[in-house]
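User: Can you help me understand a structure? I only have the sequence.
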Amino acid sequence: MSLLSEFTPWMALSDRRSIPRPGVYVIAPLSEIALGQTPSEIHALVYVGEACDQTVSQRLSQFCRSAFRGLRAHSGGTRFNGFYQNADENKYAFSVLVPQHQEPALSAYIRFVERAIIWEYVSQHNRFPPCNGK
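Assistant: Let's start by predicting it. Here is the structure, written out as tokens:
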């Protein structure tokens, strides 16, 4: 069973300011997913990220600055901008897992989940998600 089943339903990327805690987030195009449904298809993911020392909202805002405006704020967003030039932010969604642990378990679990989702993608596709470099 995929850890994606523990994530929130898909939300529009413009709703990113609603997650004021650390966590793990995934990004996918709206053409591959349905808003309001829990993520289930790993193939749709274009990026898997984590926010340990910041909130998910802050990290997603950095991703969007790089991905859609070409500014250097997030390495995955910079990769996204290179792959999907002139992409429309309104055509992407995110889902998040926000653990309720306390430190040090919080950061450890967030990093574990991020790597587990990336591993699941790699094991099925023999490559990283398009905007994850490692």
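Now, to help you interpret it: The chain has a mean pLDDT of 95. Helices lie at 56-69, 75-83, 105-125. Let me know which part you'd like to focus on.
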